[in-house]
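Cross-check.
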Amino acid sequence: MTFSDKQVQLLNEPIKKANVSTRWGDKKQTFQLSYVEGWHVIKEANRIFGFGGWSSETVDLKFISEDSSSITYIARVKITVGNVVKEGVGAGHGRMGGIGDKHESAIKEAETDARKRAFMQFGDQFGLSLYDKHQAWAKESSTPKAKPAIKTEPPKAKGEGEALTRQFIAFVKKTK
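Predicted model, tokenized:
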């Protein structure tokens, strides 16, 4: 299969920072991981390849482990665009709800993770650039205007409002 010039152009565009999510990579919150969400990957596939231009198939799903707090599955997903086939492997962990909810959550997460890893092989729009250890995707470009910095220090005013402001700032820093 040959991709159209427009598809190649779209696949070669750098990922927009607005399409990248982050989460803490560890319980101590010492580093963050960047990723694209599963719904966004499907949205991009529909935009670039068309609604009928690609397919996804779970080719393998394995129950890995279960303990009192979680259930784990791994999945292998195949993405087909024309005659181009890519595969990805992902893991999912069900931690919330009853036993059925845990299995369902783990399976969905494993399939989504595997689908994202398969699509990643098509380029930056699907998160390939997020594997760049230098994070060139995150560098400011000259085109968009920089957002104004958020002041993180409480105002110098004394009184009742200052304590509330400090609590709010601590909360915001904690949720970043």
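The mean pLDDT is 83. The longest strand covers residues 55-66. Passed to J.P. for a second look.
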